[in-house]
Amino acid sequence: MLDSKYQSIIYILFMAILMSGVMSAAITAAHIGLIDNFMFLWIESWVWSLFLAFPLIIILSPISEILTKLVVKESK
């Protein structure tokens, strides 16, 4: 098990893997359909999207937190 200080980066990694996988599968299927080599094309697309998703989540998470705080009332 990893130390709890790595929790946020591991969370980001899992989110990037899961979200990029689901999104790339859906977009690949929508664009080309479920053809014979779908799995190869999807995995190729997934690798590219994962390389984008991981750093983008790290960069955009603070912006998302700020926007969330602007629209959610703080509880007392």
Distance between the termini: 36 Å
Please report the total strand number as a whole number: 0
Largest sheet: none
What are the secondary-structure elements, in order, as H or E? HH
Strand content: under 5%
- Count of individual helical segments: 2
Could you tell me the mean pLDDT? 93
Shape: elongated
Helicity level: over 70%
Structural class computed from helices and strand pairing: mainly alpha
Radius of gyration: 16 Å
The parts where pLDDT drops under 50 for at least 5 residues are none
Summarize the structure.
With 76 residues, the chain is mainly alpha-helical.
Topology:
Layout: H1 7-32, H2 38-71
Helix pairs in contact: 1-2
Describe what you observe in this structure.
The longest helix has 34 residues, at 38-71. α1 (7-32) packs across α2. The protein is elongated and about 55 Å long. The protein has a domain at 18-70. The protein has helices at 7-32, 38-71. The chain has 76 residues and is mainly α. It is built from 2 helices and no strands.
Give keywords.
single chain; 76 residues; mainly alpha; 79% helix
